[in-house]
Amino acid sequence: xxxxxVGCGPQNKSGTTPFFQSDEWEEIRFDIDPTVNPxxxxxxxxMSAVSTGSIDAVFSSHNIEHLYPHEVPVALKEILRVLxxxxxxxxxxxxxxxxxxxxxxxxxxxxxxVSPAGPIxxxxxxxxxxxxxxxGNLFMAHRCGFTQKVLMNTLAESGFKTVVAASRPSAFxxxxxxxxxxxxxxxxxxxxxxxLK
Length: 197
Fold this sequence. Notes:
The chain has 197 residues and is α/β, with parallel strands linked by helices.
């Protein structure tokens, strides 16, 4: 089965979710940044290098927030286009509700957590990783944001038939799974979200 890992950065499928880490998934790394050596270079809004209906699953971790709001539906239509009829889309992004709780507590510049890239403050989660942008990687800028309700509605409005989402406040992120064809919410939940750490 083919996994399109969009916005992969330097990561491979071992950095996705246990669901995609088995040998049955053939990973295709897709990214806008040529320096991470993707299999295919492109953008979420133009995946024309990927054939229609050729992908079993698309995984996108912390990419959708880099789009402008008007680009999000375009990207989701592209993801639907490349998916097979029984395909699934797994997406993660910052959870604005959990981040804004820290902002309300006046902790805008205090580390919320420490990542491999260093301390991450609410300001970085809201607007993009400052250190990476300072080094010239403007791909890291954030241009939109989501709550669990908004993410679910956005996927549904873009044509995903079944959408299930989960919030992880301790990690300040959201996970959602959308399917191209209708499935039960329980089936979708068991596909990926049940495996979250």
